[in-house]
Amino acid sequence: PFSLHWELKTLLYLGVILLNIGLGYLIYQNINHIGHVALITLISGVCAICMAYAIRHRRPFSPGETESPTPYYDYILLLGCLLFLVLEGYVQYQYNLFGTRYGLATFIPMVLFFGLAYWLDNRGVLSLGITALASWVGITVAPQEILSKNDFSSGAIVYTGVALGAFLSIVPFLSERLNFKKHFSLTYLNFGVHIGMISCLAGMMALDREILFFPLLCMAVGFFLWYARTQGSFYFLTVAVIYGYIGFTYLLVNHTASWNFDYMFYLLYFILSCAGVIYFLIHYKRFIKNKQS
Hints:
Distance between the termini: 30 Å
Order of helices and strands: HHHHHHHHHHH
Helix content: over 70%
Low-confidence stretches: none
């Protein structure tokens, strides 16, 4: 016998996403024939049914992890949340409900998704809430001119990304200390490691402030290497090594470009360094600790 648990969960998540994509495409193609009121009513009705089902069949609230009451519970809740985003975006585009207050348009789903994630204990909805949080923070700190010109190399956005990555990395330790929804830790850390390290790389490359952001990148790499070692996580070990390698390589190439090195120097560097990284990742068990021990 072979377990198909994760394969079936992946197909169910894919089905929810494809359903929303198909609904959006249907709206786009037939908006003049169906009518705005009918579309809003349809989306609102399906969204309300999903939310009502999730609330009616919820488990009693617990600070720990709770099991889903039905096999399809998580997917119905996720579908309702995604439909809420479709509805909000559609109303904003058609009727300009929020005007130019884009921060409010992201703040509402952020509060809703965080509340539902903790109340109904759902990691997928928590991911939506963190994404909305990142959007709300980015829109709040960025001037309107930056958003209109899509200039995401702004210093304000980069600094905010570093701070948000640090915040998301700290939240799991507070949850474990308070013994409150400790199983959400991986979701927070997954967002924190990517947002924080990508922001550090953006500060090095786009803002050209290596003296500030490279030490921050090294601190982040060291932190997640420590976490990977203590928790036995190969995923965070790989992510930390890759981001650290990108930052160090950029620093090396950027500062040796004016030295007129032969191309063989860089060729040997990439061959040997990549081989070293691969060797390290293959023998990762010598680095990380076994959680059971």
